[in-house]
Amino acid sequence: MLHCPTCQGRLRRVHRNFAEKLLYVAMYECGKCHTRKPDPRWYALYLGDYPRCPRCGTYRLTRLATRDKIDQMLKGPVNWVQFMWGADLYHCRYCRVQFYDVRKPVAPEVREKAAAAVSMGAAAQGSEAE
Ligand SMILES: [Zn+2]
Ligand SMILES: [Zn+2]
């Protein structure tokens, strides 16, 4: 049983709106104070909302239909799990690395958000550059 972070009351499961469905497995609401507490999807929790390069963090990725024979494949359990999950294959041209990612921008508004995040990410990378 989940408890409210505010008043320790009992949480009940409530319907999610569209954006919440993308991000959370479930949404809970407190019966007493109506505090809402999301249950995030594991990949939203660990990796963010959109396919993103695990090395440099860019959202500017190329989706590959087949595995590239020259560029290396990302190693590690997260990549392996996503491959087993049937994730799409992506390629980062900056790092020349391939990896699997289950996240998909499914709606136009999500794509716009991803584009905004790309410009924000590029700015952040610029300030980090040596
Ligand atoms: Zn509460
Ligand atoms: Zn990269």
Structure, explained:
This protein starts with 10 loop residues before the first strand and ends with a helix. The longest helix is centred in the C-terminal third of the chain and has 21 residues, at 108-128. With 130 residues, it is α+β, with helices and mostly antiparallel strands. It contains four helices and seven strands; from the N terminus they run E-H-E-E-H-E-E-H-E-E-H. The protein folds into two domains: 11-40, no CATH class; 48-128, no CATH class. Bound molecules: zinc ion (2 copies). Residues 53, 55-56, 58, 92, 94-95 line the site of one zinc ion.
Number of strand elements = 7
Please outline the major beta sheet: 4 strands, mixed
Instruction: Determine the fraction of residues in helical runs and give it as a percent range.
Output: 25-40%
Mean pLDDT: 78
Rg over C-alpha atoms, rounded to the nearest angstrom = 18 Å
| Uncertain runs | 106-110
How many distinct domains? 2
Q: What form results from the Cα inertia axes?
A: elongated
What structural class results from the helix and strand content?
alpha+beta
Count of helical regions: 4
Order of helices and strands: EHEEHEEHEEH
Distance between the termini: 49 Å
Beta content: 15-25%
Bound molecules: zinc ion
Oligomeric status of the shown chains?
single chain
Which strand order do you get reading across the main beta sheet? 4-6-7-5
